[in-house]
Amino acid sequence: MFKTKLVATSLALAIGVVGVGGSLVSGMGFFNFSSYTNNFTLTVSASFTPSVVTTSSHGFGLTPGKNVKQAYVWLKEGNYDSGRVYSPTAKNTSDSNLYEAVTSKVNNPFSTATSGYGWIYF
After folding, report:
1. Rounded CA gap, 73 and 12, in Å?
2. Would you tell me how many other CB atoms lie within 10 Å of the CB of residue 3?
3. Is the CB of residue 78 less than 8 Å from the CB of residue 107?
């Protein structure tokens, strides 16, 4: 599990969950983690392509020589804790679709947010 800090820089009117879930999106082989904030929301996401064998150059804490089956992300801010939010699970290592785990919440500019991600392998 890996952590990153988000610094809230804008004023939000309320604290609440905007969206939580995983999705399957079209794309080609890469791995990614991102955390970002706009004026009102914090969002974290992790994506992967099951058919791509990980290498040491991919980074993101991936174990080289493996295929990712599922990703998860989490987001904490103040009393809010998303828990682990999982991507859909890939069925096999020949799947070339891009999978993504993502969660968002309304930004609280008076709290420091932390987020993280992890990978589950075949």
Report:
1. 23
2. 11
3. no
The one-letter amino acid code at 99 reads: Y
CB atoms within 10 A of CB 51: 16
Structure-token match 């493996």, residue found: 66
HSE value, Cβ hemisphere, 13 Å, CA-based, for 92:
2
pLDDT at 6: 42
Q: What is the pLDDT of residues 67-108, one digit of tens each?
A: 999 999 999 999 999 999 999 999 999 999 999 999 999 999
Q: For residue 50, give both structure tokens.
A: 């099951």
pTM assigned to the model:
0.76
Residue corresponding to tokens 């998860």: 72
Domain ranges of the chain: 2-121
